[in-house]
Amino acid sequence: MVEEQDFRTRFRYNLFVNVALNAKELVPKTLYAAFYNEFFINGERNTGNSEVELFDRNRTHFGLGYVLTKSTRHQLGWMRQETEVWTKNQLQFSLIKT
């Protein structure tokens, strides 16, 4: 339990797009543009103590990446995260292993 609340379902939907800039596909030594958008909605709005909104949060990310090897990429970008009550911008550095 978290703060006297039982488990609640939250759905997460996302779209990820990577576009190679100096090659036809994401192969080693490729620079690419990265975009993703994901949003979360609450599957159960009653927390036991109160009601929560249907919309939970939305994240939008724009970045640049570089393919090091077939299974390793680096990515640097900006992410904006929004909820009903706050908005936050952050710099994001990722190491992606596939």
What is the count of helical runs? 0
What is the number of beta strands? Answer: 5
Structural class: mainly beta
Sheet with the most strands, sense and barrel status: 5 strands, antiparallel
Structural account:
By secondary structure, the chain is mainly beta. The protein has one domain. 0% of the residues lie in helices and 61% in strands. The protein has no helices and 5 strands. The chain has strands at 10-20, 31-42, 55-69, 72-82, 87-97. Strands 1-2-3-4-5 form a 5-stranded antiparallel β-sheet, with no helix packed on it. The protein is elongated and about 55 Å long. The chain starts with 9 loop residues before the first strand and ends with a strand.
Topology:
Layout: E1 10-20, E2 31-42, E3 55-69, E4 72-82, E5 87-97
Pfam families: DUF2490 (PF10677)
InterPro entries: DUF2490 (IPR019619)
Protein name: DUF2490 domain-containing protein
Q: What's a concise summary of this model?
A:
The protein is an all-beta fold and 98 residues long. 0% of the residues lie in helices and 61% in strands.
Keyword list:
98 residues, mainly beta
